[in-house]
Design goal:
Number of domains: 2
Helix content: 25-40%
Number of helices: 10
Radius of gyration: 21 Å
Largest sheet: 6 strands, parallel
Structural class: alpha/beta
CATH superfamily of the largest domain: SPOUT methyltransferase, trefoil knot domain
Distance between the termini: 65 Å
Shape: elongated
Length: 273
Amino acid sequence: MAMITSRDNAALKLARKLRTKSGRDKEGCFLVEGRKLVDEALAAGLTVRTVLVRGADPGTAPGADSGADSGAPPHQGVADALYDEIAQTVTPQAVMAVVEKPAAAGGLAVAQGAEAPAGVLVLDRVQDPGNVGTMVRTAYAAGLEAVWCVKGTADLWSDKVVRSAAGALFRMSKGIREGLSAEDVIKAAKAQGLRIVVCDADGGDYSEIDLARPVALVIGSEGAGVQAAFRETADAVAGIPMREGAESLNAAVSAAIVLYERRRQIRSGYEET
């Protein structure tokens, strides 16, 4: 395994670019840090261009023992100080990888012969990366097939989102869409037979709303909430009852509550009252 000792190395230059959104957009790649997440990216079938290993121990690298003919991505050792310059965590893990963003082929249209998703999480300008990653992770766990992001939502391929999603982002990559307008989402939801359900504190009790049918669940930004366009076209507005004087719930917590109510309804069979 080659050892990188120069800051001018091409692989390190690329990795430094990927620390910014503009760099990720330009290069079509993102960084994944930590052996577990690198393994998750490989298992999900994403294209891993190169694996960077802190120091010279190849045994810490995913796929390092699989042999030259295994199709494993190339591995390069990196001098400790240079590796730490690129790492995005306070206590760097020993492995990171440059991974290609999955292609979002076909926009929001459903491919001919394919089934429309039965559940979509729509993030409407949610800006906190930790919340975004947590919601992607929860959406996957709760059985949704897709996450559609309205322009203004945190970059899904940033370090904080990738780590918070804990591999779910890779597993859902075929259903991930970014940079959408509210109109894009509404048009696609209606065309695919999805009910638009908006989450808002002023809505009706979420447990009394039919979430079992195919649905696009819209979560708004932490400050501004959901755009008017979604409210005006919503089939239902779901709220979470709280005791008097309580502040609104964190966006990721709210999404988890409603997503698991949807799962409960599907499992038990929902009869609208």
